[in-house]
Every structure is written in structure tokens, then in C-alpha cells.
Task: structure prediction
Amino acid sequence: MGSMFRSEEVALVQLFLPTAAAYTCVSRLGELGLVEFRDLNASVSAFQRRFVVDVRRCEELEKTFTFLQEEVQRAGLVLPPPEGRLPAPPPRDLLRIQEETERLAQELRDVRGNQQALRVQLHQLQLHAAVLGQGHSPQLAATHTYGASERTPLLQAPGGPHQDLRVNFVAGAVEPHKAPALERLLWRACRGFLIASFRELERPLEHPVTGEPATWMTFLISYWGEQIGQKIRKITDCFHCHIFPFLEQEEARRAALQQQSQELQEVLGETERFLSQVLGRVQQLLPPAQVQVRKMKAVYLALNQCSMSTTHKCLIAETWCAARDLPALQEALRDSSMEEGVSAVAHRIPSRDMPPTLIRTNRFTASFQGIVDAYGVGRYQEVNPAPYTIVTFPFLFAVMFGDVGHGLLMFLFALAMVLAENRPAMKAAQNEIWQTFFGGRYLLLLMGLFSVYTGFIYNECFSRASSIFPSGWSVAAMANQSGWSDAFLAQHTMLTLDPNVTGVFLGPYPFGIDPIWSLAANHLSFLNSFKMKMSVILGVVHMAFGVVLGVFNHMHFGQRHRLLLETLPELTFLLGLFGYLVFLVIYKWLRVSATNAASAPSILIHFINMFLFSHSPTNRPLYPRQEVVQAMLVVLALAMVPVLLLGTPLHLLHRHRRRRRRPTGRKQEDKAGLLGLPDASVNCWGSDEEKAGGLEDEQEAEEPTVNVQVESFHRRTQPVHRHCSQETCLSSIPRRSLGPLAVGHRQPLTQFLSL
Amino acid sequence: MLEGAELYFNVDHGYLEGLVRGCKASLLTQQDYINLVQCETLEDLKIHLQTTDYGNFLANQTNPLTVSKIDTEMRKRLCGEFEYFRNHSLEPLSTFLTYMTCSYMIDNVILLMNGALQKKSVKEILVKCHPLGRFTEMEAVNIAETPSDLFNAILVETPLAPFFQDCMSENALDELNIELLRNKLYKSYLETFYKFCKNHGDVTAEVMCPILEFEADRRAFIITLNSFGTELSKEDRETLYPAFGKLYPEGLRLLAQAEDFDQMKTIADHYEVYKPLFEAIGGNGGKTLEDVFYEREVQMNVLAFNRQFHYGVFYAYVKLKEQEMRNIVWIAECISQRHRTKINSYIPIL
Result:
């Protein structure tokens, strides 16, 4: 938990990786996940880097993998998840993997091709059979005979030129959506010198490529003359129709087709059996190979970020690594380079870039850290608000959700998830909503627990009060004192318990809200008032705590001026206005009792009057000289606003001016002195990026005001502060938000139960 | 449409306009071009294109990579985007988009007819057809023998049908006639499109009319240039010019009488828009007339994105994307032919 307080110390580490061992070292580091590589070749485009050839080879392989994967999926099979630890294979193994997969892919392609060809053939046969069996024949036979009878006299004219004129046929099948266009085009192009009949196939055929059922339109065109015939053939070609020879003795033809297709089906069955064998081998080989090659590619991509040493003997990498992990890093490097008989060296170098933020989490803290990160990831070494969130977030939730029964249900649900978290089925669940719940299971657990606690305070279990202790109010005493008769009781459905009557109010309930309130008609207005005041108190305390956390940042980064210019005004503003409100609430609780309840002052009116600098005569002051105190507080708080807005920028501007007044010759030294470190990063050996960085610095020096202000606004939005101010917005500025929410949870249920 | 498109434009077309602007933002930048030019092989080019919005559109191509493969894939991508626009569009945007495809359809029809004339197989030609101008009856074009045949049998149902009114003739389709047919179709198409935009009014008219006028003038110039030294008579030439644009009518009459490039240039000098263009020819880098026209076109199309609530962005985007594809193909050709001296004469898209 110590490491949760602020992000860990991270060091810039330079790794000297001998060329022979660079691959194994990076692979090992990748397995350990200790470091983050910096790109030293940012100016070099992707295809000019050193290991681009290897990356390309991996990509080639991945392309083959995708092909294999698609084939497996198309066959409706699932790839098993890879098992065991699969480190990146040594580079020479790539060839083996490549060879194996290539061979498999080639085999698969062949078999697949064969199968495809067979299926196309089969499809063709089936279509042919279907076209013949479509029953165009009776109709056509009719027209044929009809036409013949019409023409009989003509044809019988002796020696006529039309002796050989006879009807020709084109039969085929076309996809249904093209049929109307085809029909119209045929008609237009051939000016009606043909008779075409279209019919839909009764039984859909399997599409040879996709395997989906598809219906076809079969057609039979009868025409006279070769010219027209050529035209028709061209048109049917352009519509990609399947054309079949149409012969007279179709029965025999159909029988032959049947037989052919049966034979084909047998062959196809064989091919498919072989195909499933190949696919089985793919299923075994593919998952581990995929993981390995992906790792390999990642290693090469990391190596691409390294620069070459001047002697070309080793690669130089720059990485961020937690200071705590340095020994582990060095050991890993030693181990993995030992095998090659060389030694890789890691040593820490100073850096002036801001290191990345590293906060280690475990399964418990991860969800809380996630909430904080959603607001913004803190800068390096900034105070991390996550540990406090572990308490505040569930508690603030519980303030809204206070109910023993509901809280218990939630707690049990979360507990079930926590207890079962090690079951593989839990982690493997793909449902997105479930994953959200499962990821936040510890959060839910605490939220449930706190809800039970606040439920006890609100004295609510499924919106019903429970009386664990005897109530502090006595109805008997009231009845005796005011002498309620039976007739009086029969007439009045509502009775008032007056705490001023002795013996009626015996003392506060030991814990939480007295259960007798659940019988009262003013139950909700009493609870609402209570919850709102409580929310205001909690909110102000929460915000003040956030501001105080900022103090740790200012101390740590040595920015004392911000204590004076930021934290102090913030606290004054917050406590002067809202802290005073809290004071009023508590003061009224303590000072005003039931005896003088009738003339009790209204805090709300007082608070509004405080800002308006006015006073209402009907509202009694809480304490003497109240108005003077209030006026002072408001003026003080308003005076803090300009300090907050301008304090830090002006301070920085002043400091910058003072530094500039010194001779320019010393500026560089001064800067170096300020940074307090020599530049040892490889980047400074003259690479472009660092020059660009240097230029920026210069520019910053040239344009002080703008940059300084920008910077200060930037700082102003830094995460801890941001966290607090977000919480401010959430809990205080609309400072009754918690109250209505808490009320909101209660009200519908009560109304529901009262039905 | 009434005035004030900004009030209700977004109801029907807001989504698509947003989409097309997003697509325009994904055009290659100057830096991308600089990187592309540095590539040594087509593989490098592919790797670099992967880092842009093209993504791994070449991932499933088998080796070796060729320029035509890249071109086809890029066209497919553009076509996919365009189809998406078209499928989600409402009237009158969908009519506008249909008009946009017409020019590609004309090109395809002419290409197929030329192919048929040279006895090439339809399949061979189909590959070269632009996918944006594809239509079902397209492949049947080669059964027609005269333009009226073509119209009556094949194109009567396509959007091209209205453009045929001027070019019905019974002449056999030889090479010259096909070329005439193309230009007449184009003229008619441009005039109709222009009228459509003009009638639409609003920002669309303000943006599209200048673009189409420029297109018309460009055609007039190019037709003139190409007709030098051919058997095309001057009267015929005049009938091919689209009857609108900055040159219409005096400039066109003069152009019809022009006999060589210099006379054409003198005519262009009368127009302040075209004077600088003709002066830029042959300047630094040996630009051709085509190049300067392309540059001007790119400029106009980029400017179209400065206005909002109009359809011109769709036209402009497709044209810009086409220019980008031409650029990539140019660079790829230069790389694959190891002809690096001219690699920089692509048309930059600003």
C-alpha cells in the first residue's frame, strides 16, 4: 500500500544490448513486462528502420495465419486457445514455422480449390438437371406445334428458301434479380424475334462458394435465325447466365446427369474428408504459432526503437523502468545474454523528461485506481488519490443508497463474485456487462458493506424501520399527560407527540434514526432535512481533504509558493463559505432544542442573507454579532478569488523576469544548473528530436508570459487537484445533490409500500 | 429548394456531410507524399500506406505487388465509400450522386465499344472499367452497331438515356464516331447536370456551378487541342462544346476557329481565370495543359469544403480522392519503373 501513496520512482535506463543477444534480451524483457521502450528513431519512417525486413516476414506469416484462420472458421470449427507459456521463438525457428504453415496453407489451398471445382461442377450439373426438369417443355412443345401448324403451308412450299428454317433453343439459368433486365434486354435487342419463358426454380440450390441456398431463374428461349442466336448468346454471356445444351431426348439426358452428379458427390465427400483432416492439423498448429509470431513481431518492433552504437557491435535502447525493478532487470539481462556468451549492460542515466506515471495495483485496488484514472492520470510522483477513494467512493455511494436489505443483497452478490474469482469460467465470460460487474467486484463489495452501515444509521431495511433498541419516544406518556379519551382518539387519525411534554422524549436513540419516525407523517421531511445537512457536511469535509492532499504535492515538488498562493486561498474560500455553513448546521443542532423550536432561526435564510449583506427581521440571529462575522467571511472569500486566479502566474512571471535580467551568457549554465544533470541520453548526440526539444526550450524562454500562463493553467488542472475539484462539483456546488439522491432512493419505495 | 438550406439541410443530409468531411480529412497530407516519394519499392509504399487511413487494404494481395493491383484496390475502396453515401442518401442528394456516376458510365460505355471495335474480349475490358460507373447492361454494349441501336436496346433504362437525344444516328460505330459519341454524351451530361445544380439553387448552385463551368471549359479546350490535325470539321467541333461556362458563347465561337495551340492561348488570354493557367504551362517542372487544369480543379474542390450545407462536398471529395489515387499510381509507376526523375510531378492536394 505504501506504493499507492504516490506513483513509483521511475528511472531512465540505458541498455546496451550486444547484437548477438539483443533479440533474446528483448524477448525476455517482454515476458517480464518491466520496462517501457522509448522510441529513439522517431524521425526515421517505418520502412527505413533496421529490422523492417523481419517485421515484414512476420507480417507475411500473419497473412498466412489469417488465411488459415478464415478457412477454419468457414468450416465452422473453433480454434482452441493456446496453452502454456509460449516465449518468442528464436529467429531461426521462424523459418521452421514459416515452412510448416506455408506447406499447410498450400495443401489447404489445393484441397479447397479441388473442393470448389467439384462443387462448381456439381452445381452446374444440378442446375442443368433443374433446367431440363423445369417443365418448359410442355408449353414449348405446344408453341412448337402451334407454330408448326401455322407455318405448315409456308414450309411446304416446294423449293422455298426457308426449307431449313427451324426453331432453335437456348436454355439456361440466371440469378433472379437479373432476370427482368435480361428479359427486357432480349426483347428490345431482338425486336421480339424470340419466345422466352422464365421460371423460378422450386428448390433452392447451394451456392458453390458460399454454400448458401440460392434460387435461380431458369429460362428457355426459342428463336429463328443465326443472327438472332448470336445476339442472344452475347446477351446471355454478359448477364453471366449458365447456358446448357437443350436436346430433344431429355429423359435419357436427365438420367445420365443424375448418375454423373452421384459420382461427383462421392468424390466430393472424399475431398471434404481430407479437407477436415487438414483443418484438424491447422487447429493444432495455429494457436501457438500465432502467439509466437505475434511476440516475435513485437520484439522486432521494440528493436526498431533502438539505435545502433557507433561500433555496430551493440544496440542501444532507452527504457523507463521502476527503480525498484532495476536489480530484476539487470538479472534478466545477465541471464539472457549469458547464453550467447556476451553481456548486456543496463545502467541508469539522468533524464530531464518527465518519467511516466507508474502505480502498481492488485486485484483489490485496480478498480479504485481505474475510477481515479478516469478523471485523469496523475503526473509522475504526484499524490495518488486512489487509496482514499477506497473509503470515500463506497461511502459516498452508501450515503445515497443507505438500506440494510439492499446493501446486503449487493454485498452478497459481490461476495459471490469475489469467492468465485479464481474459476476460469468467470474470467472467460465474454459478456460485456458481466465483465464490468466482475471487474468492479471489490468496489461492489465495499459499496454493499457501506450501504449496510448507512442503512443502519437511516434505520432502513427494505425501506422498513427495525427497532433494535426501545424507541426514545413514549406514546403512553403523551396519552397520559394530554388525557386522550377514546372519543378523541376515534375522531383524530393524526396525533402529535410533543417533546416538550415531560416523559414523551426520553433521549436520543442509541444508533441512527429512531424507528418511531417511520410512523410519523412528517417522516420524509424530517429525513430529507437530516440527509441534506449531512451531505453538506460530508461534501465540505471531502473537499477540504482534497485540498489538503495538494499540500503533499507542493511540498514534494518544492513549490512552496503554491502553498501560499493556492492552497491557502482555496482553503479560506472553501471553509469561509461552506465551512461556515457546516458550522451553522452543527451550531444549530447543539444550541437549538425542542423547547425553543417554534422560534428557531432558519439557516437557509441566514446563508442567503450572508451573500446579499442583508437581514430579515423575522429571522432571529443565531449568535450575537453574527452579521459582522458573516460580512467579514464573505469579503475574505471574495478577496481570495483574484489571488487564486493570478497568484501563481504572476509569481512565475516575476521569477522568470528576475532570471532574465542576469547576463545571457550565464543562462545556459543556469539552466543546466537548475536541471542539475548532464545530458547523457543518446538523443543528445545530435539526433533531431532532441534538437527540436531544445528549440522549444529556447522558444519558451523568448515568450515568457504566454507560456508561463499556459503552464500555470496546466498545473492548475493537475490530477489531484482535478480530482478534488471534480468531487467539489459532484458533492458540493450543487450541494444538495446527495440529499435528494438519498431521498430519491427512499421515497418511491415508501410510497410503494404505503399502497 | 427554398432559400435557407442551413435550416433543414442537416435533417436529411447532415450525417452524410459529416461523413464526407471526415473522409476528406483522411486524404494524404504533404508529409505523407514526401514519405511516399522516398520509397524504394512498392512494398515500402505499401507499408507506408498502411500507416495512413488506407489501412491494410493491400493485406490480402498475393505477391508480387503491382501498380494495377494497388489501383484496383484503391478504386474498390472509393467505390465502397461512394456506395455507402449513395445507399444512405435521400432525394435530391441521391439524384445528385447518380449524376456523378454518369460520367463514369459514359467512359465505361465508350471503353467497351472501343474494345469491341478492336475485337478484344469483354472480360479484358471489364477490368479496366471504373467501378463507379458499373451497371448491369454494360457488358451488352458490344451488340449494338449504331448509336440508336445502342440507345434503344441497352441504355434506354439507364440514367444515361436522357443524354442520347442529340446523338441518335445510324452511322456505323467506327473510332471517330465513338469519340464523337463520347463528346456529345458528355456535353449533354454536363449541361443536364449544370441545369440540375442551377435549379437546385442555394449554396449547392453557388459551389457546383463554377466547378461544372470549369469542367465545361476544360473540355472545350481539350477537344480543341485534340482536334488539331484530325479530319474533324470546325462546325462539328463547335457542336461538341458544352453550351455553358465562362467561355460560352464568344469564347467557344473563337475556339471553334482556332487552328493551333497559340491561337488557343490567345483566346484563353481574354479570360482572367485561364490566362495564368496557360502561362504556367511548361514552367517549372515542364507542366502540361492537363497538369495545370488538374491543379486548378483540385484548388476548386478544396475550396468547396469551405462552404457548408451543400452537395458540392460529395463531388469535391470524389474528385479529390481520384486525384489522390492518380498521384499514388503515378508515384507507384515511377517507383516500379525506376524512373525517379519525374516522381515529384504529382498534383499536390492542399
Notes: The radius of gyration of chain B is 21 Å. Residues 175-200 of chain B form the longest helix (26 residues). Chain B has 15 helices and no strands. Residues 11-337 of chain B form one domain.
